[in-house]
Amino acid sequence: MANRLPLIAGNWKMHMTGAEAAQAAKRLKELVAGVAGVEVMIAPPFTALYQTAAELSGSAIALGAQNMHWESKGAFTGEIAPAMLKAAGCRYVIIGHSERRQLFGETDQNINKKIRAAIAAGLQPVFCIGETESERESGQTFSVLDKQTRKGLEGFVLQDLKSLVVAYEPVWAIGTGKTATKEQAQEVHAHVRRQLAERVDPDFARHLRILYGGSVKPSNIRELMAMPDVDGALVGGASLDPQTFSQLVHYQS
Ligand code: PGA
Question: What is this structure's pTM?
């Protein structure tokens, strides 16, 4: 059994000003101080990154961004470059979140370029995949996820992928209160790991962290994290309140 450090990540989406984010980060820092055996990450909006980074300095909580562009600079109005995130103190960047795919037209090709650019900039990509409800109901879950991982990671060599994190987020479970059962999550995570073992490398797949996301909350995190292939959680709604999020971080106690 590979030793995969669990990652509990908060995706704050389009919530919180810089001041609000700094306050939440400060509170979270107090609430999770001293927690061991788990890594914690929060991803505030771009405008809150610097203030949040300042608040987190000296703490073990990692900073992440929610998106980025793949180019390093240029005439791309409204976009943010990888090096800008790095300079703001980010260690992680969420890429290919289903809201980006569904609401902003992100394609597997864009996502592939973003993952490549993130790695080149020294950011750890949290690469999101997930099926919709109708895809699940029509029995296409595995084929959809296989396509997303194949295209998202096309052209990469093993060396590139060392820092990759994958997040399985069934679209039907995001913000709906409907969580995948622990068995559904485990089945998918094991499948994704098996596919990547075959397509990339067995050792890489064994060490890869696969997070589950979609209505994770204090009442269900423990059973999800008890699954052998669930290595953490990507949390939206329940990450906004530091008290609730800290309960997720302390899932082991
Ligand atoms: P949720 O969001 O926890 O609110 O379902 C998860 C996500 O979108 O990352």
Answer: 0.97
